[in-house]
Specification:
This is Aldehyde dehydrogenase. It holds the Pfam family Aldedh. GO terms for molecular function: oxidoreductase activity, acting on the aldehyde or oxo group of donors, NAD or NADP as acceptor. Keywords: Oxidoreductase. By secondary structure, the protein is an alpha/beta fold. It folds into 2 domains: 275 residues, Aldehyde Dehydrogenase, Chain A, domain 1 (3-Layer(aba) Sandwich); 191 residues, 3-Layer(aba) Sandwich (Aldehyde Dehydrogenase, Chain A, domain 2). Helix content is 40%, strand content 22%. It is built from 16 helices and 20 strands. Strands 14-15-16-13-12-17-18 form a 7-stranded mixed sheet, with helices on both faces. A 6-stranded mixed sheet has the order 9-8-7-10-11-19, with helices on both faces. α6 links the parallel β8 and β9. α2 runs antiparallel to α4, α2 crosses α6 and α9 packs across α11.
Length: 483
Amino acid sequence: MSGGQRLFVGGAWTEPDGGYYEVTDPATEECVGLAPEASPDQVRDACAAAREAFGPWSRTPPEERAAVLGRAAEVIRAHAEPYTTLARAETGATTGTARGMQVGVAAARFRRYARVEPAEWAIPPQVNEAGPMGRAAVMGALAVRQPVGVVTCVTSYNNPWANAAGKVAPALAMGNTVVVKPAPQDPLSVYRMAEALESAGAPPGVVNVVSGRSVAVGEAAVDSPDVDMVSFTGSTAVGRRIAEACGRDMKRQLMELGGKGAALVFDDADVPSAVAGIGTTFSFYSGQICTAPTRVLAQRGVYDRLVTQLAAYAGRLKVGDPSDRTTAVGPVISSPHRDRVESYVELGRKEGAVVVTGGERPPLDRGFYISPTLLADCTNDMRVAREEIFGPVVTVVPFDDEEEGIALANDSDYGLIDYVWSTDVARAFRVARRLRAGGVGVNTVARNMEAPFGGFKKSGVGRDVGSYALHAYSEIQSIVWPG
């Protein structure tokens, strides 16, 4: 393998045309391994292999497809420790996050879609009167979920295990074949997933993985005429370009894009609960997650208390080596991304925000670290309150009453997940229904993993997770007959 990871194309581990590049550990700045750089021709070969495999795989009984996914889940669980070590090294996630939220969630997602669900359902009969369409008749109907075809899965760097599994598992369960194009920063874990599926009995061409730093790699995976659908997780800017390409050929799309989650904290909120929930932005993936409650809207009566307690919470978090079990905040993914996050903090200062805590690099010799940062006295028109920073940075904006809080929350280009903290449950649910977001957490940042996931506005197109992912990776066919 010339010391590097090979591509996985049509069931064969293939030497990359473009050679190899180093994958960097964000904590140590050392080389984790060598990732393959595919050529556009190799990407198109992967798409063609997926097209060739689609017919047989789509006709494979759902029970057999489910069995492959179930075996893959067991392979992942059996290799949890080495997979966790690799995920931590590639992403900079803490050991607990890498084990539980990356590798663990990936195994759970393969196990979830190893459960066969009905792919058709009856439509109530319709009585048709005699007319131009024929004699009077009772028409029966059936709605059938059919696979879309070849799905290109473009995955995010913040969670290469769970994000890829969340696309690949339901797509395969539905009878699609896939070409996975992982994020260039940490693709090695996705190749381990391909190995797990191969050993679980996935036929050649059903799963293909091609990586590379060149934009041409992703473009070829999206533009290939063999591809019927693109499932993308990443920035809204890149999602827009992919959507334009899909639109030219009417390719189906599932877009999981950016977020700027508004967290409305009312005067009657349980403040320690709100602080603990909002504080996950500082620690969980070091804020590199689209669902984070990064834009706090605090009612005046609780504003000062909330800012004080959030600052104290951030100050108690240990920043450092992700392999140390006492570490809460690891590095961000790369040096350029750290520079980007730091530029936003400086922009916030210039816009008039008060840096209550953080805003500087911790005194560590190496690694792409940023101290958890709290920006108070913000207004909703500041760029730091409107744009996705994707780092351990929280902004706080005050508001006076419920109507203003809702208006501020909805005054955003994004609409992925918002949050409401109030001990008045009736009000919390009333407010939640008025928020223009795909999901709302009421007094929690936890998620129900069967609930549909996706965004309003520029946060994306479509929904997945649970049974909704089976819908996302399928076309609906109607079959009608005279009763």
